[in-house]
């Protein structure tokens, strides 16, 4: 005799609560792991160990006939591993930088519900129990609030997997004394948000930030004669659509933000690229010290001479010291036509002797060199299995 649906749901609820209890126990063990590594000075990540763990779990599932797909097992446990790595990372960074504040002020673009707001929450909640949110209408205002001390941190988008680099943020980095102290990624899941109507064909006006419009250009082209209204942020667009309450308008933004403004999802997954991710940077007034056990990045600002091969000569320094360069971006220098400023992101800690030697040698090939920040990366790349 088949069980009643309510009984099945009760069983599922009980299993889910048991899973939560086990996940909590595993999370707590991450602190025991990092205390042990703190003594031995081993790196936080052991990718070979992670590969072995995932393969053992897949094999165990197959031997026990659990009927779970390897991809399913891998996705779940990679997320668990990511939580463990970031938990350990925060533990070391708090101790190293003596972070004792009970609350922090953090500035972000847009109003509550914007992607920058959600990314700021994601970053801050790992480090602090209390968060005071400061909404900003422009990237420049974020820099100003951090510079003045009104905000402890600012969170800014730097690049997106669909629309590329955020040039305005790169340009502002040229003229600041603030330091990069962190980075993180946040998944971007755009949808059409409306005031309750359910007919997409009636929508003739879309509100959103230019970046969101660009990232959803293919979906927008599929609509008939839609007018675009650009807003300072996607959250501002959601607020406008909610307050105007018209059947012919919609906002492009995220579902969580839409709920804050009483909007409903009319169409989801509308971005050009399914795996749409934005990388954010975190800025502060003072630089931080990064543990040598942590995956660390450094962002450099550099100019070279105008001679042929001058940039190539500079970049060979990283090859000499076996330092991996993950990003090379160029931007024009205002007031100097045809001259460019280069942003170089490397996987290196400025406290390491090899990095210090590389930077010293790099100065011989550059006309200007500045370290914009050395910071822990919260981007935990999953290991490959099979």
TrEMBL record:
The keyword Transmembrane helix does not apply. GO terms for cellular component: cytoplasm. The lineage of its organism: Bacteria, Pseudomonadati, Pseudomonadota, Gammaproteobacteria, Pasteurellales. Its EC number is 4.2.1.51, 5.4.99.5. InterPro entries: ACT-like_dom_sf, ACT_dom, Chor_mutase/pphenate_deHydtase, Chorismate_II_sf, CM_dom_sf, CM_II_prokaryot, CM_P_1, Preph_deHydtase. Residues 105-285 form the Prephenate dehydratase domain. SUPFAM superfamilies: ACT-like, Chorismate mutase II, Periplasmic binding protein-like II. It catalyses: chorismate = prephenate; prephenate + H(+) = 3-phenylpyruvate + CO2 + H2O. Substrate binds at residues 9, 26, 37, 46, 50, 84, 88. Residues 299-376 form the ACT domain. This is Bifunctional chorismate mutase/prephenate dehydratase. Transmembrane segments: none annotated. The keyword Lyase applies. GO terms for biological process: chorismate metabolic process; L-phenylalanine biosynthetic process. The record marks 278 as: Essential for prephenate dehydratase activity. Pathway: Metabolic intermediate biosynthesis; prephenate biosynthesis; prephenate from chorismate: step 1/1; Amino-acid biosynthesis; L-phenylalanine biosynthesis; phenylpyruvate from prephenate: step 1/1. Residues 1-92 form the Chorismate mutase domain. Keywords: Amino-acid biosynthesis, Aromatic amino acid biosynthesis, Cytoplasm, Isomerase, Lyase, Multifunctional enzyme, Phenylalanine biosynthesis. Its main location: cytoplasm. Pfam families: CM_2, PDT. It is found in: Cytoplasm. Catalyzes the Claisen rearrangement of chorismate to prephenate and the decarboxylation/dehydration of prephenate to phenylpyruvate. GO terms for molecular function: chorismate mutase activity; prephenate dehydratase activity.
